[in-house]
Amino acid sequence: MSRKVVRSSKFRHVFGQGVKADQCYDDIRISQMTWDSNFCTVNPKFVAMIVDASGGGAFIVLPLTKSGRIDMSYPTVCGHTGPVLDIEWCPHNDNIIASGSEDCSVMIWEMPDGGLVSPLTTPLVKLEGHSKRVGILSWHPTAHNVLMSAGCDNVVILWNVARGEAVVRMDTQHTDLIYSVCWNRDGTQILTSCKDKTLRLLDPRKGTVITEKEKPHEGSRPVRAVFVNDGKILTTGFSKMSERQVALWDPSNFSEALTLQELDTSSGVLLPFFDPDTGIVYLCGKGDSSIRYFEVTDEAPYVHYLSMYTSKESQKGMGYMPKRGLEVNKCEIARFYKLHERKCEPVVMTVPRKSDLFQEDLFPDTIGPEPSVEADDWFNGKDGQPILISLKDGYVASKPKEFKVIKSLLATTASTSPHSQGDNSGLQALQAEMKEMKATIEELTKRVSELESKD
Q1: Is 445 helix (H, G, I), strand (E, B) or coil?
Q2: Above 80 in pLDDT, residue 248?
Q3: Beta strands 373-374 and 143-144: pairing type?
Q4: Rounded Cα–Cα distance for residues 390 and 368 (Å)
Q5: Rounded to 5, what percent of the chain is helix, strand, coil?
Q6: Upper half-sphere CA count for residue 362 (Cβ side, 13 Å)
Q7: Residues 143-160 pLDDT 10s
Q8: Residue 129: Cβ within 10 Å count
Q9: Class of residue 103 by CB neighbours under 10 A (exposed 0-12, middle 13-18, buried 19+)
């Protein structure tokens, strides 16, 4: 037999490694909620985690450099009246974060560069339109200020965040609880998985179903789905015998899976993270102590097992760093922020290479923070491809795209009557102006103290 036993791949030897104890974030009371979201979101500036809070919902935002033991009195973002279920950093501004909560609202927050010095209770924008708790959030990958939220009312809403209004409301497509929502690479399609055992591909602006697949997995446990390269779809779910499975689908022919593999009999839902630059998908099970990774290619069996990172402690949630936040000179191709009971541990995925030079084959141009289309234009039908950046000299943060709230049009609540709204707009404008003035004063004070320290 002359058949090659081992498939050649530059990612065959990818290995995961937890960082040293002093680079972890310790003494954080991670939320005890049983919701299946990541509970953690990261970007090149901050790591944010949902924490236990009395009398409402809160999450903590730490600058990446602030590792070690976190003081119990460290300020949190605590404007929600119910537990926070999902948080998501804006891909176009590293200081803007969205949170969804049991109190049925979505809030948009702005973080100061050095992190919080006092508890943050007032959001930039409050979005109200769901009648039950909001469990899933996802920012549009290329359009500025477009946010998607999915609630336990089986409704998906697309928001124009700068205007504070719901533009598209999909309330008839799903007959049961929505498990996951995901944008494709340029944000022209949405993929949802639902408790009614149906996978749906939707047109986000029309709110219409393009195609759907019933029972991608036979079991009744939650299904997760993400877009991978070439418009294909990867799903994780369970068989009738409660074995965990991973499958790959071609939406142009949903009748049969391109591949369906059984993994193990654990009960945790597998959260998939896909890296379009390398074609690697990472599967992190809630309650597992391992991260499996596979390479998705064009050749059968399409989803090729690479390896598995295992540790002693199980994970309560997982944050995934965007490519521009990685250390490319160390051949770091992915970094996860793994939540334990009381801490957050970064886990680094590396391709072993002897050379110190930039490895172009590992780091092709990747999605940068610049949006390619504004919210109003996108809702009017204009599409934008992702704007790519090179990581050759490492990512250097430029001035983020300013978050502007269109004051005169900002509807803070969906139920405000037209009359009361007119009365409120002047007050809102005044509050916003005061906020801007405060920010300017803070900036100038900081600059003065810097100059004094130099003297």
Answers
A1: helix
A2: yes
A3: parallel
A4: 9
A5: 15, 40, 50
A6: 25
A7: 999 999 999 999 999 999
A8: 20
A9: buried
